[in-house]
Amino acid sequence: MLIYLLCNLIALVGLTLHWLKRYLRKQTTNNFGKYLYVEGKYTALSVITTLGVVAVSVEPSVSLSDPYGLGKFLAIGYTIDSVMNKE
Questions:
Q1: Is the pLDDT of residue 87 over 70?
Q2: Which of 7, 9, 29, 59 is the most buried (most CB within 10 A)?
Q3: Domain locations in the chain as residue ranges
Q4: Helix (H) or strand (E) holding 5
């Protein structure tokens, strides 16, 4: 259960990194709070999809000391937010 929660947290960090990339490239002027609410429909869909994908991707043998495992969940959050929040 703890592994599942940590993998979700890592995926949500990936989602946040996608917002940061858009913010630094001036693709959005919203701070993170406004990003969650102004683009709320797409961001909520992104979060729900991320949690669902992580739920089916977590294996009992996942080790958080493995950088590839961490990268996988970071990429899941980043990619899903990138797809859902296209402008």
A1: no
A2: 7
A3: 2-84
A4: helix 2-24
